[in-house]
Give the backbone structure.
Amino acid sequence: MPELPEVDSVKTSLNELISGKTIESVTVRYAPMIEGTPAAFQNALRGKTIESFSRRGKYLLWHLGNKTLVSHLRMEGKYYLKDAGAPMDAHEHVAFVFEDGKALHYHDVRKFGTFALRDHAEVYTTPPLDKLGPEPLSDAFTPETLRTWLKGERAIKTVLLDQRTVAGIGNIYADEILFCAGIHPKTKARRIQDADKLARCIKDILQKAVHDGGASIRSYKNTLGVSGRFQLHLSVHTKEGEPCCFCRSAIVKTKVGGRGTYYCPRCQKH
Ligand SMILES: [Zn+2]
């Protein structure tokens, strides 16, 4: 699933490719992806000019003046820039056609992606954005805000995946962050002593991934469109049996809250 860095790179690409375009029409092939009726969705979007794209947590926001479209790519949603007359392929479920002869197709094999249209004035105070915690790369996220969640019996990885703690962390980066912090993923939240180090690892790991992602996506967007996912420079996630980059111990795979979880048994302690 795309996490904060991947959605950020999609946002950056869409800002370069799509901002300023005016929507001429919208085709909806798979109605459950849209909140409300497709007809209301199409009518509300027709004639709207896209001012910009932004990101909040793992959500992509289309800023359309008095309306904001909230898009979640879920497992493997992707956007592709095409010409207005291009046919929609079997896995493309929504197409936005622009007045300048271009179109943006939303591609999603699993069909888990969602689109919700909101009044701009209410977008941050209504679901799905209203319950999100602070943005980890903003000044609003601090060791103090993190410390308020370091209590109770839940595993620390579960706490990091809770979008109320901090917005945008998913299964991949949670593993990488806990490796950076030297914390075993099953450690109970109340036992975490060093909130400063954990907060610093959250910022460092995500910042580096945003930077690397921004670099990689520019190199292939012209042929592949705008991809929703990439994985770069991972230290533990999916590295079962490979040597830890610090101590050479074999990386171990386990499960935390039902999610596949990777860690170094020597560097990461309870
Ligand atoms: Zn190690």
Q: What stands out?
A: The pocket of zinc ion is lined by residues 244, 246-247, 249, 264, 266-267 (CB under 6 Å). The first helix runs from residue 4 to 17. The beta strands are 23-28, 52-56, 59-64, 67-72, 78-83, 92-98, 102-107, 114-119, 252-256, 259-263.
